[in-house]
Task: structure prediction
Amino acid sequence: MANESPTFSPLYRQIKGLILQALEAGEWRPGEAIPSETELAARFGVSQGTVRKAIDEMAAENLLVRRQGKGTFVATHSDPRAFFRFLRLIPLAGGIEQANSIPLECGRAKAGQEASRILGL
Result:
């Protein structure tokens, strides 16, 4: 019989997971400020230190950006290196290669009803 014990996850990692879920759900958009550590601590029922540790880890992973005196913001990834945020490709010969994107198709089409409404056409 296998030993079936629950996997332990530190509280700050659980809070990090909850913040990630909120980001994925679109609660905060890239460039927007997230609630303060105090507000998040109250929301999740944990200490500010626990929230701070979760946010520090997310900032180290470039998911959030801290701005002194301004707050913490959802990172925007307009940098081409962001394509490799979760994937590292290294050629067999070593070194670093620049990422490229090649358009597969280019054309014109009449805007549909919804697109026309949104664009004001």
Observations:
- The chain has a mean pLDDT of 83.
